[in-house]
Structure formats: structure tokens, C-alpha cells
Amino acid sequence: MNNIKCKRANFEVILSMQEDFCCTPKHNQKNWILNRALSETADDLTALNHLCKKFIEGSVRPEIKGAQWHAEKASYKNEKQLIIDNQQVMQAWEAPYMREMAEIVSKNKGDVLEIGFGMGISATFIQDFGVKSHTIIEYNDDVIKFYDEWRKQYPSENITLIKGKWQDVINKLPSFDGVFFDSYPTSEEEYVKYVIEDVTYARHFFEAAYDHLHKGGIFTYYSNEIDSVSRRHQREIFKHFSEITFKVCKPLFPPFDCNYWWADSMVVIKAVK
Is 268 in contact with 101 (CB distance < 8 Å)? Predict the structure, then answer.
């Protein structure tokens, strides 16, 4: 058993490993890659220590009730937030971030697919930037009512709503020039699997996004990354996309009782097929 250590001012990271772990042709190669990985972990922790000092207090997220969050679950919306079955789904503080993503996905001025209507913040920005067509997938009945009211503002635009979960309907759709993903978990099991245990909630949508983009098409999504994108996250993106760029959107001002985001920044991701 070998150990590699990396020290910082207020903590120490130690990697304990078997002799046959990361076997490289030369021993110095192994030392180089493992020291680099450990140093990056230490730098991540140092950055998090700084960022945590600026977090809002936040609140506890209630569990999603029942095995499945059905389309009929009651929704409440005002100018500040959208709540479905007591779950905070979207809040107005996200508008600057939604605008950045909408600008990215609308860059080609072509056909755009948006997963999740929410409060209509991103959909409005997409229309402001101008696209050839705008297809929206939405699951919840009450949110669709909000969409129907929003749609009246754009009587001459090519906007189509498709009702259902994206997993059930997306394979019936053609390819697009841009795909925008900002959906939400529909069960507690999905929340744990794709939010808590995965690198980002959108990761399980990566393959579907790739499959429904033209060559050169653009994919963007709610990243849940604060000031950079982890190597694990980048590896997942590069399994499907040929090019990625990042931009930090700040300042953001989540309210003190927000239970799904606590920082004043978030990374905007542009992935190109």
C-alpha cells in the first residue's frame, strides 16, 4: 500500500492505493498523474472553502411525495417563483442565467428544442433573440396552462408545445440546431440518482441531446457548477460533444430560503456537436 499526500494551509488530502493501481510504464509517470489529480482535488477544496463563506442560508428541500411526480400535481406561480407539489422548480433570480443560455442556444437562429417550460423565462429570451422554430416539451398540466397564456404574446411565431416527459416523446422528434435543457426530477428516486449521485442533473440527457442535434448544433443546460466545471463533468460532455466552452454568470441573487442553489454564480456551458 502506497500513500500520496497533498497539504494545504488547513487540511491534508491522502491517497492510499495498492501497488497495481494506475500502473504506468515508468514510476515517475505514475507519480506525475496522481500528484496532479490530488493537487486538483486540494485546489477544489480550497476554492469551495472560499465560496462557502458567501453562501446564502437556504432551506431544506422537502422530499417529492409518492413514487412519481404526476403531471396533475398542483402548481403555483407568481412573478417570483414556480412551485410544483411544494417543490421549488424555478425562481426569478435565475433570469440572468436563463438569458445567457438562451443567447447560446439561439445563436444559429434555427430550430430550437427546449426541455421544460418552467416560468417561461428562458422561452421568452429565446423568442427575444429570434429563432426559426421553437419546440417546447412540458410535463405538468398547470405549467402548460401558464404556457398557453404566454403563447398568446407570439401569435405569428413558430412555437410548438409537446406534452409529456422528455424520455417518452423525444425520440419522435427530428433534429434541431439548438437544444436547451432545464427540466426537473419527477420522483425522489430520480432526484437522488441524477442530482445527488451524478455529476449534473442534465447528464442523463446528454446522449439524447447529441442524437437530436444537427452537425454544429449547440447544447446548453442548467449546470449546477459554481465557478468552473470539474474534470469528471468535462469527461462526460466529451463522450458526446466535440467542443465545449464555459462562462461564469454572476452576480446571481438566490433568496435566503432557496433550497436548490446557494451561490452567487453559475457556469454557462456551450457544447457543440
Answer: yes
Phi then psi for residue 245, to 5 deg, are -135, 150
Q: Within this chain, do residues 43 and 117 fall inside the same structural domain, yes or no?
A: no
Taking the CA atoms of residue 127, residue 130, residue 131 and residue 137 in that order, the dihedral angle to the nearest 10 degrees is -10
Q: What distance in Å separates the CA atoms of residue 127 and residue 115, rounded to the nearest whole number?
A: 15
- Tens digits of residue pLDDT in 167-218: 999 999 999 999 999 998 988 899 999 999 999 999 999 999 999 999 999 9
Residue 86 pLDDT grade (very low, low, confident, very high; cuts 50, 70, 90): confident
Q: Is residue 70 part of a domain?
A: no
pLDDT value at 68 more than 80: no
**25 is written with which cell numbers?**
510504464
Residues 59-65 have a mean pLDDT of 89
Separation of alpha carbons 237 and 212, rounded Å:
15
Domain that holds residue 19: 2-52
Say what the pTM is.
0.93
Same domain, 40 and 158: no
Residue 213 bridge partners (DSSP): 176
Alpha-carbon span 125 to 101, nearest angstrom: 9
Same domain, 103 and 19: no
DSSP notation for 136-154: EEE--HHHHHHHHHHHTT-
Per the domain annotation, does 181 fall within a domain? yes
